[in-house]
Amino acid sequence: MDLHLKETQLDSEVAFDGNFLKVQRDGVRLPDGSLTQREYIKHPGAVAILPLFDDGRVLLERQFRYPLHAVFIEFPAGKIDPGEDPLQCAKRELQEETGYTAREWQFACTIHNAIAYSDEHLDLYVARGLTAGERKLDEGEFLDIFTATVPEMLQWVREGKITDVKTVIGTFWLEKMLAGEWKL
C-alpha cells in the first residue's frame, strides 16, 4: 500500500551497546534508490499503568529524570524484561513502584513515543480495584506517589506541568473513558 514510502535495510551494526540503551546503525536504500544511514535506539518495550481508584482519583508518581534534570509527574511504568508478558510487567511495576495491586486490568492501547529515533513502544493498562501494600523499589530508584483527579491532570497538561508523553496520552484516555466516550 505505502511501498512508495518504504525504506529497505541493506546492512546493520551495533553502534553502541550500553547497560540500558543499544544504538543500531543501518545502511538503508530510500524509495528513490539513494543510500543513507539510520541510527536508532533499540528498546525491549515498556508498560505504563493508569491506576484508577473507585472514587475517580488517579495514582501518580513524581520522579527525577536525569536527562532533563527535572522532576516529572508520571504514571507508574517500567521496562519489559526479556520474555516477560506485558500485563505481568504492568502488575509487577505497579507493586514495585507504588505498593498497590489491582483486582481488574484492562488494556488501553500501544503507543510509540519516539518514532524518529527509537523502536520503543509502551502498552498502557488501566488498573482498578486498587489495594495498598508495600513498595519494592529497585535499587537506585527514588520516587514519590500521590493522587490527583483527571480534571486536575488535564489542567496540569494545559499548564505544561505534565509533559511526559505516556502520562499526557494516558490522561486523555482516562478522560474519554470516564466520560463513556471510549470503551476498553
UniProtKB/TrEMBL annotation:
Among PROSITE patterns, the record links this protein to: NUDIX, NUDIX_BOX
Presence of the UniProt keyword Hydrolase in the record: yes
- What protein name does the entry list? GDP-mannose pyrophosphatase
What keywords were assigned to this record?
Hydrolase
Q: Which residues form a coiled coil?
A: none
The family note in this entry says: Belongs to the Nudix hydrolase family. NudK subfamily.
Organism domain of life? Bacteria
InterPro entries referenced in this protein's UniProt entry, alphabetically? Nudix_hydrolase, NUDIX_hydrolase-like_dom_sf, NUDIX_hydrolase_CS, NUDIX_hydrolase_dom
* Sequence ranges assigned to domain Nudix hydrolase in this UniProt record: 41-170
Q: Which reaction does it catalyse?
A: GDP-alpha-D-mannose + H2O = alpha-D-mannose 1-phosphate + GMP + 2 H(+)
